[in-house]
Amino acid sequence: GQDHAWDRQRQGGDNMAEIREGGCLCGTVRYRVKSDAVRASACHCTFCKRRTGSALGMLVLFDEANVEITGGPLTTYEHRSDESQRWIRMQFCPRCGTTVTLKLERFPGACGISAGTLDDPSWVKIERIIWTRSALPWMTYPPGIEQFEKAASG
What is the CA radius of gyration of the chain? Predict the structure, then answer.
């Protein structure tokens, strides 16, 4: 099913949104986002750890209509979650391998941007931490952020 909270959030919006830019490591793929983020999450699932080669993944969701990709083209890899059976499509630079965007079956109309690809990621405010049951044992979390053992509802 669809995540109706996502639909409600993306219908709001600020017409004075700041333009955010970023791209891959080698500079072949660039993007521009002309809206505020709908959601920003830190994910500790096994898939995100593997796709990033790190302790977690950080994803910022935008309405895909406001994301413009230049350069490229991107290469797509589709993964199906063994937990939810939903697909996740990673889109990455074929030259340097940087995952730039993710499309998620759970959030139709959304484009996830890998937070580390933003030219300036300092504005990103993580609102939820998911899949804490898969986090590395030394991981600690800042106070005041929603935490979920598995995927968040809504």
Answer: 15
Q: Is 133 exposed, middle or buried (0-12, 13-18, 19+ CB in 10 A)?
A: exposed
pLDDT in tens, 103-114: 999 899 999 999
User: 74 and 96 in contact (C-beta within 8 Å)?
Assistant: no
Take residue 146 and report the two structure tokens written for it.
């929603």
Q: Which helix (H) or strand (E) holds 6?
A: helix 4-11
Residue 80: HSE in the Cβ half-sphere, 13 Å Cα cutoff: 2
Model-wide pTM > 0.70:
yes
Nearest to 61 by CA among 81, 29, 33: 33
Q: Can you tell me the distance from the alpha carbon of 99 to that of 112, in angstroms, rounded to the nearest whole number?
A: 10
Residue 62 is which amino acid?
F
- Which tokens hold the place of 62? 């935008």
pLDDT of residue 83: 77
Q: How far apart are CA 134 and CA 42, in angstroms?
A: 12
Reported as type and span, the H/E element at residue 49 is helix 46-52
Please answer whether residues 93 and 100 qualify as being in contact, where contact means their C-beta atoms are separated by less than 8 angstroms. Answer: yes
